[in-house]
Structure formats: structure tokens, C-alpha cells
Amino acid sequence: MLSLKRKSHHYESRLYNKILSFSRNKYFYDEIGLADTYHIRILLIFFHFSFLMIILKKKEDIVNSKKISQKIFDFMFKKIEEDMREQGLGDVSVNKNMKILVNKFYNILLNFENYIKYDNKKKIDLFNKYILKKTNDKNPRLAELIKYFNKYQSFCFDLSLNSVIKGDLNFKY
Q: pLDDT digit string (tens) for 69-119?
């Protein structure tokens, strides 16, 4: 049983690190013009993870997909909480911020549920809702961001449950 738990933690860590690396892609900051801030990186993690969760929900093995999604979710928020504590935030601040972030994540997840059906204007409005509030000094190229996430969404759609478990998120843009 202990080895199974370690193995589980291993795939959660791999997936989280892959999604984290996506959020650090210089393309977002150099080409699209997003502000390279903690908040924007968190949003990018949430955007990437939302697409993955939406696709997992539609997989045939729904029981395992839900379990995997929950484990990744738990791990992701545990890492975000640890990061806040490493930055020196106390219990009250961490708890308050975590509540805000969890609510924001679920809001993003709900809004991205029908992303594939949205036209470009609706997609721009969707990203404006989250990004422009925190990007005061730049004018991001949201059309480029949409192209990126259109491709990422298609990539996620083709993932097998086994690929997700292995952490095979070899998305390149």
C-alpha cells in the first residue's frame, strides 16, 4: 500500500511540474505580453489544469478519471499553499488566499467547460475577465493567447488516461 501511495504522489508531482513549466513559458510574457507576476502564473496554471480536468471528465473510465483529477487538484493546491508559506505568509493570510484561489479555480473551470464552443470574441472576453484585471501595465495579445489555448485544448482532448497518469504532457507551442 505504501508503494502505491508513493507511485500516486509521483504522477501528481510530474503532472503538476509539467503544468507549472507551461505557466513559466517565456512565450506568455515575451510574445503575448502578460505581466510576469505570481498571480498571472497562478492563472496560467489554472487555465492549463482546467482543460486537463475537463477532458478527464469526458474519458471513458470516469471513476479513475475523477480520482486522478481530485488527486492532482489536492496536490496542486497543497503546493500553492506551501509556496505561500515559504513566502512568509501566516495562517490567516494563507487560509484567506487559498479560499480565494480555490473559488477562482472553480470559476475558471466552469467558464472553460464550453470553451470549444465559444467564438473568438467570447474567448477574448473570457480571458479579459481574468487577465486584464491583473495586467495594468501591458496590452496583452489575447488573440495569440487564444490560439495557444485552442491548440492546448486539442492536445488535451487527444490524451489518454494512461498518458495523464504517466505525466506525458509533451505539449509544445
A: 888 899 999 999 999 999 998 989 999 999 999 999 999 999 999 999 999
Phi, then psi, of 50 in degrees rounded to 5: -60, -45
In terms of C-beta distances under 8 Å and separation of at least 24 residues, what long-range contacts does 132-139 make, across chains too? 134/35, 134/37, 134/39, 134/40, 134/43, 135/33, 135/34, 135/35, 135/40, 136/35, 137/35, 138/33, 138/34, 138/35, 139/33
Instruction: List, in order, residues 6 or more apart from 147 with CB less than 8 Å away.
Output: none
For the chain, give percent helix, strand, coil, nearest 5: 75, 0, 25
Which amino acid type is present at position 25? N
Taking the CA of residue 74 as centre, how many other CA atoms within 13 Å lie in the half-sphere pointing to its CB? 10
